[in-house]
Amino acid sequence: MRIAYLDCFSGISGDMFLGALIDVGVLPEIFEQTVEVLGVGARLEISRVNRSGISATKVDVIVNEEKDSPRIGRTESSDPHLHSHIHSHELSHAAHIGDHRHAPERDRHVHHHERGLTEVREIISEAALSESVKAMAIGIFEKLGDAEAKIHNVPIEKIHFHEVGAVDALVDIVCAAVGAEALGVDEFVCSPLNVGGGTVNCAHGTFPVPAPATVELLKGAPVYSSGLQAEVVTPTGAAIVRTLAKSFTSFPEMKIEKAGYGAGTRDFPGHANVLRITVGESTADANAGDGARATHSETISILEANLDDLNPQVFGYVMERLLEAGALDVFGTPIQMKKNRPGTLLTVLAKPEDVDKLAQIMFAETTTLGVRRRDEKRQVLARKWANVSTRYGDVRIKIASLNGSVTNYAPEYDDCQRIAAERKVPLKAVMMEAMEAYAKSIKG
Length: 444
What we know:
The chain is an alpha+beta fold. Helix content is 34%, strand content 32%. It contains 13 helices and 21 strands. It has helices at 14-23, 28-38, 80-83, 117-126, 131-152, 163-183, 212-217, 235-244, 284-287, 312-324, 355-365, 413-423, 427-443, and strands at 2-7, 42-51, 54-63, 66-67, 95-97, 114-116, 159-162, 187-190, 193-194, 199-202, 205-208, 223-224, 245-248, 254-263, 274-282, 295-307, 329-336, 342-350, 372-389, 394-402, 405-411. Strand 20 (394-402) and strand 21 form a beta hairpin.
């Protein structure tokens, strides 16, 4: 299994992650094209810098020809005309609570004062990106929005983001999703995270480090502070890690292929402010003996509710909402309930950190009065993606393997559905041709 190890000895931020991806081999043109299709009036500036003796790639997002700086020991201006220009590049650094309505004009090159999560979702959904990238990017944004909403004790719809902060975070997050997919690894693994220390000044006042949103996002992850008095794990970095990383551990057993370094903005004396990504083949299964299975174990949460008075038309909508919110799987099972009433057992498989959000949807959208939860271990086959070309268009293939041998593969349904609709051909024809194309590719 090919893995990428995130070594967060100096924390992680969105720009550090992009720099490390470029340094480890992801083409910068991919990110530049991504920024262009987003159409938000931004561009990237990519350079080589030195951080305490380590040469690293630095990525800056330029918005309105301005390069933002990290929030550290700064006092925000009270001038409303300057307010949107001096916030940090992190989404939660620029969070604002309110009910302001956006003008109907949606020209993204015109300066907006602020953006809500709904508009962010629209921008990502309308961009010319793969469905998997869109889902990942929206998921990262929703994690950030959920954390902010919980900290401020307001609905997520009340969270708005000032223009510069929102654009910068939008670019960081969408490029992170594109780069993670382009890296082509089966799994991301993360080290314990150095979160730094001290305090920072932001829109809402002076906050401790790690910031409240970062703490919320890193629940369940191993963290520590080396004593460095600075914010080195940002909320965007934390959200990227929680979305990508399947596990947190010290340096794993692997055959190293390559490594890359992404630079943070600040240059600390005697401390290399970089994120390292190491890519290679996991050797854990090979070292475990002939009986080892090329799988990994992970903890998932299972949410259940018995429903006997829900309109069947609503059930499909609930499933869609839960999947859009990050559920790993959703299904219904016919059951016979008390008083001999037929009902449906709604079952949701989820990441543990998504349980509260998904349970809220179950309460809001169904008639249940209670949701059961349990955590279980599951064994997962190594999985990866490949692209195949058909006469109708390119289709992604999901591939599962055991001990290096392919056990299952299937075309991505969303790709096939989109192509069938666009080309006005039967869905089954697109799926069949994609399967045949992949079968030919593995035969040589």
